[in-house]
Amino acid sequence: MVFISGSSACTLFNRTSSRTILWSVVLAALCFAGCVQDSPLSTSERTITVLLELLRDESPEMRRTAAESLGKIGDPRAVDSILPLMHDPVAMVRETSVLAMGRLKPTATDRVVVLLTQELEDPVESVRQAAAIAIGEIEPASRLLQPVVGLLQSSDVTIRRAAAQALLQVDSSQWVAALVAAGRDSDPEVRQGIVAAMGEWGGVAASPWIRGRLVEDPSPRVRAEAAYRLGTFSDPDTRAALNTAIAKDPDKGVRLWAKRGT
């Protein structure tokens, strides 16, 4: 591994062209994030200052790299500067800024949850996936999830999928009724996500509903998810449902997961 000493880093920081110093700054940032433990505080502060400036650079690659580096450094002061990039016109910048927000772990307020929920509606799949991950990383209280739950009613199936993925990542125990309602979605991927979330957060009370999905859902992927989730329960009715699936389900994958759960 190559390290940049304090003196050489200062020389690099004094250059006038942001494009010339970018990769040196990024390397220095990564070092301060975990490799170099005894670098002067002033140099660390200068690194963060330069990266914050680069968030407004005209080059999308510059903005993306600066946001990624700030996320790795983990300085919470970067939150307010990164937030505007969540609406950047370039998808890779939006994706990186959302992931950086997850790493920075700002306090999960209504405002932060709403902003990340908006990213679940992004037209680009990678941005939506990043938003689901970030929501999980900031761990909002279940009571703050109304904006995410509301997206389960979206007319856009890709948004419903993203919402289901996000609700699997965080405590959705207060939204069981909404999850059950969404469990009849026309899209198998959404239904699978809902079954997973119910298995994760619904507790023992979710077992009868998940057993119903194992028996009734027309999609093998949903039934397989149900079989997997039922493997965490040990009540007689669940054992019986899994044994029935082993004997009668037409899909090999469902039978396999049911067998593993018994």
Assign the CATH topology of the domain at 203-262.
Leucine-rich Repeat Variant
Helix content: 55-70%
How much of the sequence lies in strands comes to under 5%
Question: How many E-type strands?
Answer: 0
- Largest pleated sheet: none
CATH class of the domain at 203-262: Mainly Alpha
Encode the helix/strand succession as letters. HHHHHHHHHHHHHHHH
Radius of gyration: 23 Å
Number of helices: 16
Mean pLDDT: 88
CATH architecture of the domain at 203-262: Alpha Horseshoe
The parts where pLDDT drops under 50 for at least 5 residues are: 1-20
Tell me the span between the first and last alpha carbons: 49 Å
Q: From the helix content, strand content and strand pairing, which structural class follows? A: mainly alpha
C-alpha geometry? elongated
Textual characterization of the structure:
The longest helix is centred in the N-terminal third of the chain and has 18 residues, at 18-35. The chain has a domain at 203-262: Leucine-rich Repeat Variant (Alpha Horseshoe). Helix 6 runs parallel beside helix 8. It is an all-alpha fold and 262 residues long. It has helices spanning 6-13, 18-35, 41-54, 60-73, 79-82, 91-104, 110-119, 125-138, 146-150, 157-169, 176-182, 188-201, 207-216, 220-230, 236-248, 252-261.
